[in-house]
Design brief:
By secondary structure, the chain is mainly alpha-helical. 57% of the residues lie in helices and 11% in strands. The two termini are 33 Å apart.
Length: 124
Amino acid sequence: MLKKYHGPAVETCGFLHVHEDKVAQVQSLLPDEETLTRLSDLFRVFGDGTRIRILYALFEDEVCVCDLARLLGMTQSAVSHQLRILKQARLIRSRRDGKTVFYSLADDHVRTLLEQGTEHIGEE
């Protein structure tokens, strides 16, 4: 049995009339398919609560896997798996100091994404 959607109603046009000039204008401004796919993949990485927690920890300071595991109450193996995904998405970077590898946010863009996301969900 299908669940009934109880969210806000989406307004639609009262009649069918495509504004070809607007469609053409917007279509000319859309990114290419490869860019849209890469952007979708990037946002998919943000779809995991553990990865968000890791990013917020790295928002504060660079830390090693041991520190993250303790902070998040997870195994080092589980944290390493999430770090690998974040690194592949170029959201974090690593720095070796002897036998210890420290992780930090890749750049200020990641910080901005987190800040703006937090601000957005706080709006009413």
